[in-house]
Amino acid sequence: MPVLPTYPGIYIEEIPSGVRPIVGVSTSDTAFIDFFARGPVNEATRITSLGDFERTFGGLDKRSEASYGIQQFYLNGGQVAWVVRISGPGMQTASTTLTGGSPLQDTLIVNASSPGEWASEPTHRVEVAVDYNTAPPHSPTNESFNLFVREINIVNDKTQVIAAETHRNLILDKTSPRFAINVVNAASALVRLKDASLGHAPNPSAVDAHNNLVFTPLTNGSDGNLMDSQGNVNPGEDTAFGDALIGSDTITVSPDDGVPRKSGLFALGMIAPFIFNILCLPATTKLNRDTRKSVLSTAQAFCLDKRAFLIVDLPASIATLDQMTNTSTGYVRVVDDDGLRHPNAATYFPLIEIPDRLDENRPRRVGASGTLAGVYSRTDADRGVWKAPAGTDADLRRASLVVRLADLDNAALNPLGINVLRNFPIFGNVSWGARTLEGADQAASEWKYIPVRRMALFIEESLYQGLKWVVFEPNDEPLWAQIRLNVGAFMQNLFQEGAFQGQSRQEAYFVKCDRETTTQNDVDLGIVNVVVGFAPLKPAEFVILQIQQMAGQVQT
Q1: Domain extents for the chain?
Q2: Is the pLDDT of residue 341 over 70?
Q3: CA 363 to CA 69: how far, in whole Å?
Q4: Are the CB atoms for 276 and 27 separated by under 8 Å?
Q5: Do the beta carbons of residue 480 and residue 513 sit within 8 Å?
Q6: More reliable by pLDDT, 160 or 199
Q7: Any idea what DSSP says for residue 500?
């Protein structure tokens, strides 16, 4: 504010510059939704490495297509993933009840930290034990206790401790800072406690002949009825599986922890201030056509709303070129009939095979979405979102192709908006297409190419996040000038990085926000209109070399 001079001298006044830098958002944070062996249910969880995924969600599981997709994502250069574990009918949390007092009564309910069989399998489970070796010592007036928790594997009748926790000096007094429920639930990765309201410490565990505590296992965990042990959707459960993937946009409060959540796909709407940019649904490879259509249609609409991009996996049955292009039964016909052409989506042929660590590294056939999401991420980091995630540097790591295609095969699919995975000598297996599902030649869409569409989504999201300060500002020329300054600086930075066509900024982009874009009627309605245009870089999809033979001319 202006300085009010009251005495002779020098006054200093700081004048705001009006610069509010717009920071480019992430471009390749990838979301995966599927069944997983363990982990939070219907809660989008951010992970940054394959080890992080294994600790939180249990790693590879034959029943989970997305677990293999996430492995491929990180092997191919992915950095940040958002993982949503779905729930199905019959899913149940393993638990045990500790007793105490006289006469003996329930005093403490111990539940696994997440539902599923993982905590109560015969050879892999969570166990708990109690002792009274506390400080100060346990007494009738100080019913403190220690709780020991461990996760174990049993191999050849030998117990291997995977993880162990010790929670000391607990008490079942709600007014105490050592109240067991609060202390353990805040610190434990393995269990959650519920107070049976007895107020008495659980009795200490028995000891064996070697004076070691005898642990009590959690029991009755269940993964539900969606799939069998081989990962096949159980008969009649297709619709339930699809409903679980889609989830609900309604916020419900979990009875277990009191946290408000949405479910399935819509759980990704609860990650603000973070965002996701790419969505993979590998589980759709196992669904019937009607359920798959429902899931993908909903996912496409959700991605459009969230300015994200969907990589669509082929059905598991699609293995040959004829199954893709057959005019009456081919997958391309299904895409057209089911209305799955969309600017925010792309698909790749053929399926890929990867070594399955759970099956002595025998080949496992999987969808390509996780692998390609990793390629997108690697390309974005190395070259920028405006570079097509295709070409000889877009190699598919730790993946082979179910079928190898020739140039004429490629020519049959490319005009239909289907990206092809190819194998070339020296370069190996690579992504050899960069079209969206709206990129068929006959569609003549302005969003024909993946990098053009993703570049637009990147700019839209960056400006959406970076211009929130504009809301409720006085709607007149000083505001418009600030908007032009900040948006122009953001676009200029992209131009200098080589993100646009053109030799000058006039050729590369424009930013308009003035009396021409925002009329007096707009001002009266509280609207400010910002018009941003850019000249996108389009991939050199066809490289034509013109060669002429010289007819013996002599150069001088």
Answers
A1: 30-89+225-451, 91-223, 476-556
A2: yes
A3: 14
A4: no
A5: yes
A6: 160
A7: B
